[in-house]
Amino acid sequence: MLTVGADYALARKTTWIFAGGGVDFRTVVVTRTAVYAFPRAEAEALEALLAGPATIAKKLDAELVRRAEAVDIRVAEPLSSFRRILVYRGWFRRSVVLSKKAKGFDARPASIHPTKDEMPAFVELLRELPQVELK
Q1: What is the DSSP-derived secondary structure letter of residue 5?
Q2: Which residues lie across from 96 on neighbouring strands?
Q3: Among 58, 64, 61, which Cα is nearest to 46's?
């Protein structure tokens, strides 16, 4: 069985800006090793997978990759590919910004906008990574 914040974080509905252009609503799952942005139609199936007693942390990424390939998503990326992860916990700015630049302004970073209730799981999951800055 998985634990929210320890094994994964979930943003049920977030705006996703694609690096090559385009914007869409996505359901985002972040694990200890990767980021997956699924189409919104997959939200219920993902929630069932994450809540299922048979789902274990060691096999979570493999299952998410399998599902990503099945629905042909364009975003399934290792966390190690992001050189900076900025976690904004404020009232007006609540987001997880994923940047491939080590420093300076990034004009097109990927970002996740968790709800107030979803944000603690992202903080808990990501806080120990060396590229994370909590703001």
Answers
A1: T
A2: 87, 112
A3: 64
Provide the residue range defining the domain that includes 104: 8-134
User: Model's pTM, two decimal places?
Assistant: 0.94
Q: How far is C-alpha 84 from the chain's CA centre?
A: 14
The answer to whether the beta carbons of residues 129 and 9 sit under 8 Å apart is no
Residue pair 12/20 in contact by the 8 Å Cβ criterion: no
Query: How far apart are the C-alpha atoms of 100 and 98, rounded to whole Å?
Result: 7
pLDDT digit string (tens) for 30-66? 999 999 999 999 999 999 999 999 999 999 999 999 9
Question: What is the spatial order of strands in the sheet that 132-134 belongs to?
Answer: 110-112, 94-99, 84-89, 132-134
User: In this structure, how many other beta carbons lie within 10 angstroms of the beta carbon of residue 92?
Assistant: 5
User: Based on the structure, what is the number of domains in the chain?
Assistant: 1
The answer as to whether 2 is a domain residue is no
